[in-house]
Amino acid sequence: MSIITKEKVFSVEGRDIFIFKIQNSSGAYIEILNYGAYLVSVVVPDNHMQFGNIVLNYKNIDNYYSDKLYLGSAIIGRVANRIAEARFNLNENEYFLDRNDGNNCLHGGGAGLNKKILDYSLSEGCIIFTGVSSAGESGFPGEMFFSVRVSFSDKNELTFEYKASSDITCPVNFTNHAYFNLSRDHTSILNYKLKVNASEYLEMNNEFLPTGKILQMKNTSYDFTGYKKIWKMMAEKNESIKGYNTYFICRDYQVGRLKNLASVIDENSGRRIDVFSTMPGMLLYTGDYLTGEHLPFSGICLEAQHYPDFVNHANFPQSIAGPQHEFHEIIKFEFHNYQEYAKYLSC
To answer: Which of 64, 155, 195, 322 could, after both became Cys, cross-link 169 (CB 3.0–4.6 A)?
Structure first.
């Protein structure tokens, strides 16, 4: 049974911000804030049973309040990723959003959920964060109520269960923006081996917006259908971005069914992450634009989410919440250090 503790770390707008610790029976634990649900640490063992933190964080906890990198927020939204030209049409109404990424809206705009002070409750070894996004925030329609249930099991499974509803129909797309680094000394992630359980990905333009084309992964620099070193695949690319900011489409997606989207391994530490979700795909980001305390390519994001910019592409599956339809999705990370996976490491 997990044990939950909390400690006040700072105050914002007259409200206390706590860091919550969920520790399991093995001694592994995670730490998360009730400000933006920022994931501050995930402390799990390597193959020598040495515990270490595998997510990038800020040395000064106050820096989460001014964060611009979404460094670990577990509730990115209302709509994760980019919306082209910061506008969309829904039910014959046109909506204009915050332009916080050039001409586009990124991760919910200036009033994204990562900027929310969240209410919380504790229940059976988990934390339930709740909040409200007022009608018109960042230009989005409807008053939206949302929650994320956070748990960390004795098997080192970190689960986020998201729910959202709105008084009028509105687009919703949540994700988790943790930057993982599995090595013992937080060196580059480029030597990691990655496998993605997909056969297709979205073509992106130079602004990292989907063109609408769905491409085949096979025999391309995006072909992670088996474990491959990230830097070796990057060397085959001929694009403006060195790494990846790419949405992969789950090959066996079924609504509401949890499935494995991807796995990443660090050979030196023996650590492995398996990513599961009920959502239809995953945005892979190799941290090309990390700055400040963290160097480029020092963290990898495995962001389960709905299709980027789905509101502007009729051929993409839509994710719309409203009075009669609740948004309900799950993201689960499993952390391992099993030796039996050594057979995959010789490729």
So the answer is: 322
Structural domain of residue 222, as residue ranges?
3-344
**pLDDT of 340 higher than 50:** no
Mean pLDDT, the chain, whole residue set: 95
Tokens 């829904």, located at residue: 90
Close Cβ partners of 343 (under 8 Å, ≥ 6 residues apart): none
Task: Give the count of beta carbons closer than 10 Å to the beta carbon of residue 18.
Answer: 18
CB 169 within 8 A of CB 90: yes
- How crowded is the C-beta side of 14, counted as CA atoms within 13 Å? 0
Please write the tens of the pLDDT for every residue from 243-258. 999 999 998 888 889 9
Total of domains in the chain: 1
Q: For residues 323 and 168, give the distance between their C-alpha atoms in angstroms, rounded to a whole number.
A: 6
Task: Report if pTM > 0.90.
Answer: yes
DSSP 1-68: --EEEEEEEEEETTEEEEEEEEE-TTS-EEEEESBTTBEEEEEEE-TT--EEE-B---SSGGGGGG-S
Question: Which whole-number Å values give the CA distances from 258 to 248, 253, 265, 280, 343, in the listed order?
Answer: 16, 9, 21, 10, 26
Quote the tokens at residue 88.
Answer: 């969309």
- Residues 6 or more apart whose CB falls under 8 angstroms from that of 2 comprise 22, 23, 24, 25, 125, 126, 151, 152, 153, 154
- What is the tens place of the pLDDT at every residue in 131-145? 999 999 999 999 999
What CATH number should be reported for the domain holding residue 293?
2.70.98.10
